[in-house]
Amino acid sequence: MVNSLFFASVGLASFALAEKVDRILKVALMLPALLILVFLAVGLAFGLGGFVEAVGERVVPEAVPAHSGWKRTLWGTLLVGGSCALPFFGWFVLLPYLGWVGIGAFIISFFRTSAANISKR
After folding, report:
1. Which domain holds residue 89?
2. pLDDT in tens, 24-57
3. Which of 8, 23, 29, 107 could form a disulfide with 18 if both were Cys (CB 3.0 to 4.6 A apart)?
4. Residue 20, SS3 per DSSP
């Protein structure tokens, strides 16, 4: 949550400052703001995609050979999308929670090393 709010506020503040200045400085402020917000959007997409996969794996286990990967993804998408579409709880509690955890997991994935890499050191 802290990462999302911090980067979103920095990006929006840069956009607000860009509206008050002249040409070249406007571009210098808008490009980093746009990059920050694109990074947040990509992180949100990958984070929600990870949640969809995790929910799909729990609902449709891999042990069942008749279910392929796309069926798990489909069921995960339907469940996550349907639960986030619930009035009030889905809109204001579940969707922000999934977004914040997804962005956090996306950011942590850059710094996490696997056990195989640690044992080689």
Report:
1. 2-114
2. 899 899 999 999 999 999 999 999 999 999 999 8
3. 29
4. coil
